[in-house]
Amino acid sequence: MGLLGEFKMSKVQQQWTEHKFEQSLGNLLRGGVIFSASIIAVGGVLYLMRHGMERTDYQVFRGEASEFRILPEILKTGLTLQRRRSTIQMGLLVLIAIPILRVAFSGYVFAKQGDRTYVIITFIVLAVLLYSFFQG
Amino acid sequence: MNILEFTLVVGTISSLAGFLGALTGLGGGTILVPILTLIFKVDIRYAIGSSLISVIATSSGAAAAYVKEGFTNIRVGMFLELATTVGALIGVFLATKLSTSLIAIVFGMVLLISSYLSSRTHLDEPIDSVPDPMATRLRLNGSYPTLEGQQTYFVQQVPLGFSLMMLAGTLSSLLGIGSGAVKVLAMDQVMCLPFKVSTTTSNFMIGVTAAAGAGVYLNRGYIDPGLSMPVMLGVLLGSALGARTLIHANPSMLRKVFSVIILVLAIEMIFNGITGRV
C-alpha cells in the first residue's frame, strides 16, 4: 500500500509539474507575440507618419540597409528612434526570439527532469537557432 | 500607390489570408506569397521574408492555446526540430543560390501537393501497433485525452519521419511557408501519431523552424520592415479571428473554395516561373 501510495504521489506530482509547465509555456508564447506586435504597431505608425505619402518600391530586390539588417545596428537606430523602420525590425527580432526562448525554456525543464538525452537534443536545436539569430 | 495605401491594402489581404488559413488549417503563407508576387509585383524574396515572419506569429499565437489542451507531444516536437531547423538552414542556403523563377516553380508545385495532402480525409482511430525500439529509447511514445480517457500511442518509423521533417524544414524557409502539410504527413502517416497530436505538435514546431530561417533572412536583407509590418499584423489578427470562428463554423465548404484559390495560384506561380516573369 505504501508503495502504491508513493507511486500515486509521484504520478500526481509529475502531472502537476507538466501541467504547470504547459501553462507557463502557453503564457510565454502569448505574451511574447502581443509584446512583439505592439512594438511593430508603434514602429509602423511612426513610419507611416513620415513616409506614408512616398511611393512603394518592392519590385526590385536590393536587400535592406545595414541599420535594418545587422543586429547591433537595428538596436542602435531603433532604441534611439533614429530610424523608425528599425523599431519595426526590433519588434520582428522579439518575434524571432520567442521560439528561441521557448526552446531554451524546454531545455531547462528537461534538465530539471534529469532527462539527459533531451537536454542534449535541446542544446543542439538551440545552437542552430542562435547561430541563425546572431548572423549579424 | 503610395506607402500608406499599400500598407492598408496589404494589411487587409493579409488578415483575410490569415483568417482563411486558420479556418482551413492550411496557413496564411501559402496564399500570401503568390498574391504579393503575382498581384502586387513584390520581389519573391521580400514576399518570402515577410511571409516567414507571419508564420512565426501565427504559430506562436496558436501554440499558446494548443499547448494548454495537452495534445502536444513536446518530446516528439523537440526531437523533430533537430531535423527541421537544420533543414531550415539548408533552405536559406538554397534560396540564395536558386533563381527566383525556379523558386516560383517549386512554390507552385509544393502548393499543389500541400493542397492535395490536406484534402484527404483523416481516420483518427487508434492503431494497434507494437512499440518501436528507437521510439522507446527516445521516449517519444505518449498519450492524449480522448472521450474514453487517456489513449496511449506508439511512434513508428523514426528515421523516415525524421528525413521528411528535414525536407519540411527546407521547404519552410525556402518558400516562406509553415509547410504544415508535409509536417503532418510525416507525423500522421509515417510516424503513426494520432491526427490531433500531429497537427498540434506540428503547429508547435512551425514557429521554431521559421525562426531558424528568419534570423538568416533578416541578416541577408530579405525582411523589409515596411512590408513585414502590415503582413505580420494582418495575418496575426486574421488568424486569431479565424481560430475563434473555427469552433462554430463548418469549414468543409470553405475548404473547397480555398482549394480552388490555391489551385489557381499554384498554376499561376508555375506559369510565371517558367516564362521567367517572377
Chain-wise SSE layout:
The complex is a heterodimer of chains A (136) and B (278).
Chain A: H1 2-51, H2 71-79, H3 84-112, H4 116-133
Chain B: H1 3-24, H2 29-38, H3 44-67, H4 74-97, H5 100-119, H6 133-137, E1 142-146, E2 149-153, H7 158-175, H8 180-190, H9 195-220, H10 225-246, H11 252-274
Antiparallel strand pairs in B: 1-2
Task: Explain this structure.
The complex is a heterodimer of chains A (136) and B (278). By secondary structure, chain A is mainly alpha-helical. Chain A is built from 4 helices and no strands. Chain A is elongated and about 55 Å long. Chain B is mainly alpha-helical. Chain B has 11 helices and 2 strands, in the order H-H-H-H-H-H-E-E-H-H-H-H-H. Chain B has helices at residues 3-24, 29-38, 44-67, 74-97, 100-119, 133-137, 158-175, 180-190, 195-220, 225-246, 252-274, and strands at 142-146, 149-153. Chain B is globular, with a radius of gyration of 18 Å. The two termini of chain B are 21 Å apart. At the A-B interface, helix 1, helix 3 and helix 4 of A face helix 1, helix 3, helix 4, helix 9 and helix 10 of B.
Number of strands of chain B: 2
Distance, first to last CA of chain A? 60 Å
The total count of strands of chain A amounts to 0
The number of helical segments of chain A is 4
**Mean pLDDT over the residues of chain A:** 85
Largest interface (CB < 8 Å):
A-B, 66 and 63 residues
Largest sheet of chain B: 2 strands, antiparallel
> Major sheet of chain A, described briefly?
none
Q: Could you give the distance between the termini of chain B?
A: 21 Å
Low-pLDDT runs of chain B = none
Query: How would you spell out the order of helices and strands of chain B?
Result: HHHHHHEEHHHHH
SS-based class of chain A: mainly alpha
